[in-house]
Every structure is written in structure tokens, then in C-alpha cells.
Amino acid sequence: MRGAAVWVLAALCSGAALAQPGSERLAVCGGCHGSNGQSVIAGTPSLAGQPKVFIENQLVIMREGLRDVPAMKPFVADLKDADISALATHYAALPARGAAAPTQADKAKAGAALAQRLLCNTCHLPDYAGQQQVPRLAAQDETYLAQSMKQFRDHPGPGRDTIMAATLRGLTDDELAQLAHFLAHFKP
């Protein structure tokens, strides 16, 4: 029954997507990730502006069970490679918008210093837009960023990036929150 409710909610929230090819799939994705690819639920990633290869990789490793995201299991189980490619192409082409909440200057400044010290711009690029299999961090949902970084730091495992685990090792929760705040408010 929960799946049917998600379908109805997604269809109501993503009217613009209904005119596009694959509109049923986009409507389902839009229920959580937003009809425009901007997260509508705290802790849920925004997909707009993510690199195409990154989106494809994540959907494949979730579909194949290499990355366990229980909320995504029913949605990725039947995805064909062509579906994955179409979704990735769609979301990669959408513009990232960023956080609507006000920036906390001191927190953002501390996060910027951490990003510089950790050399985040080496892989994620100076504008934090990501590239290929490396995700866009700029303008990403702040809660999602903080949760993801905690997972990398505390629970490295299958489907997780060992470079990220090593980079974040030793950082406190407050430092991760500062870094997440800076990146969520960074304008690409």
C-alpha cells in the first residue's frame, strides 16, 4: 500500500514531468527528489545537476544490492540500463538551485576552511559541481550531506568510497556539520 501512496503523491507533486518521456518514472522519483530534481524532503539528495555518470553508477550499485538504501530498493529493483541512462540524462541536465535557508556566516566560513584543508575541490572540482563518478556537493541538501559524510566516516563498506572514508576520518560531528553547511550554501 505504501508504494501506491508514493505513486499518488509523486504524481500530484510533479505535474511538469508528466509531459516528458518516462513521465511515470519521473513522477515516482519526483515524490522525494522533487519534480525539478530539487530535494523536497530533508535528508534526501537533490539530483538536479549531478553528473550523469555519478547518477548512473549510484542507481546501478543500488539496483545490484552493492549499496543498501532501503528506501530506494522498490524503485530501483526493476530499472533497466536504458531507464537508468534516461533518468541520469534527465537529472544531469537540470540546474541545481541550492539551499533556501539563510547562511550562517561563521559556520560557512569554518566549513570553507575545512573544505580547503581536506582538498575537497581536487575531486569535486573548485566549484564543487562534481565530475564523472564524483558527485556535485554545491547546493546539495545540507542534512543529506551531513548524513552521507557521517556514513563515510563511520561505516565504510560495499559501494562506499574508501577515499572519502579516509578523508573524513577523525573529523567531529560539528566539523561535518560545518562542511555540510558550507557546501549546501555554495553557489555553483
Describe the structure in your own words:
It is built from ten helices and no strands. The protein folds into two domains: 92 residues, Cytochrome Bc1 Complex, Chain D, domain 2 (Orthogonal Bundle), CATH 1.10.760; 81 residues, Cytochrome c-like domain (Cytochrome Bc1 Complex, Chain D, domain 2, Orthogonal Bundle). With 188 residues, it is mostly helical. Helices cover 55% and strands 0% of the residues. The N terminus is likely disordered. The radius of gyration is 16 Å and the shape is globular.
Task: Please report the number of helical segments.
Answer: 10
Distance between the termini: 39 Å
Instruction: Predict the CATH topology of the largest domain.
Output: Cytochrome Bc1 Complex, Chain D, domain 2
CATH level-1 class of the largest domain: Mainly Alpha
Task: Give the name of the CATH architecture of the largest domain.
Answer: Orthogonal Bundle
SSE arrangement, N to C: HHHHHHHHHH
Output the radius of gyration: 16 Å
Shape: globular
Mean pLDDT: 86
Strand portion: under 5%
Short recap of the structure:
This protein is an all-alpha fold and 188 residues long. The protein has 10 helices and no strands.
